[in-house]
Predict the 3D structure of the following.
Amino acid sequence: MQRYPVWLKKEFSPHGVAREVRELLGDLQLATVCESAVCPNLRECYSQRQLTFMILGATCTRSCRFCAVDNGRPQPVAADEPWRVAEAVRRLGLRHAVITSVARDDLQDEGAGHFVEVLRVVRQQNPGITVEVLVPDFHGREVLIRRVVEEGRPEVFAHNLETIERLSALLRPQADYRRSLDVLRYAASLGGGLVKSSLMVGLGETPLEVEHALRDLLEAGATHLTIGQYLRPDAAHLPVLEYVSPQRFALYERMAYDTGFQWVKAGPFVRSSYHAVDAINSTHALH
């Protein structure tokens, strides 16, 4: 599986507007999951001033076997990070901000309070902004999920299921398939914003197993979904077992709509926050 198929050919090196975005992020000492996770869409999204801020540092306390983000012992939380994120949003002229984080199992509140503070300052300095948060599972602790939803008031609450149930423990040894569904279910029960999740394919799952995951997600309250191709960051991570064709992605997208999802984006280069503003603007895609 060393050669990419023709539909996975894409330039990576950013230039032009994308370079300006990288310089701004460097000036404000901000991390993005786009860079930390080696996203193939970085040049495209940065050129459109679309990005996903990664708060709470750049070192994760978990070691998922698909993720390129560094793991280990993280640095203390930076108290001025909410201001720096808000300033980046202002300078970039964003109307929709996407904010994720590393897992911070070392913190008493696992970073939930910091999410709330970032959202508060971003809104304070950028009136009218809409926000999507992509959160870790917080070990399923309802008090933390409720804090992010009710105090942070994100327009989109996202948590990624990532894969089918059979492969979940292999990909995410410190997480749990059913726990992730419970996170989404509880967030949906609070009646806040849209509830969104994401799946990776190409790891040996079958279409029937994908369909089962779709039904689990819908039952848990997710209404918005992305499905993308897993790409191996390096030799230390799980290998790709299949490069899923665009035709199969079209099948998965149709399957998700038929299952009952309101909005779906599926394709080889789709990632959990790819064209995230579309989820806000098109809650009932017509297919």
Remarks:
- The CA atoms of residues 30 and 204 lie 35 Å apart.
- DSSP finds eleven helices and eight strands in the chain.
- The two ends are 33 Å apart (CA to CA).
